[in-house]
Target: ABC transporter permease
Amino acid sequence: MNWTSRNWPYVLELTGAHLVQSVLPLLLGALVAIPVARLAARNRTLRPVFVTGSSLLYTIPSLTLFVVLPLLLGTQITSVVNVIVALTIYVVAILVRSSVDAFESVDRDVLQASTAMGYRPLRRFFAVELPLAVPVLVAGLRVASVSNISMVSVGAVIGVQSLGTLFTDGLRRSILEEIVVGIALTVLLAVLLDLVLRGTGHALTRWQRAGRARTPVPRVRRGAVA
Model:
């Protein structure tokens, strides 16, 4: 553990950079994917276009995207902006499909009832449709978060600082401890972020569990004849 004890401030700095590069694309991707998925879920013509298009986006190799984006954005190849934009694209690719499924899982009868109660489309979306879709949306976010945590490390190949830097530097200098620390912290970040998302989903759907708990279960008396 000599290397770790001498370099822990540097390791913490890389951990923070890795976390930012993972979480920011997750938020940006969700802001893009959820409205797109909502539109696709309610329009049968657009659904295959958006779902297929998002699937094709995910087939683009990450390293290729990191190299091409500077040419398109006019940024330096080592700029963190390239990683954030690339991972946002991948998050959108993952979330569009799962978010379409989330909105399609919402009971149409519930939506019709809310419309009959006078809910306008925007209010109905935020007050009824989005809360009911939360469990499936969070499941998609959890998948995207794990994917992001792992792909951020690829940016180290082109010089973007993250925990992936420990892999490339440790391999170059043959320091096994540095590589192991990088792997361990990457896994730890993935687990912690997954727990945060799981807890958030649990908190946001508390009202659903409370409603199920208050629903009385009919009892069948012994000897009753159907």
Notes: The mean pLDDT is 89. Residues 2-41 form the longest helix (40 residues). The chain has one domain: 2-206. The two ends are 72 Å apart (CA to CA).
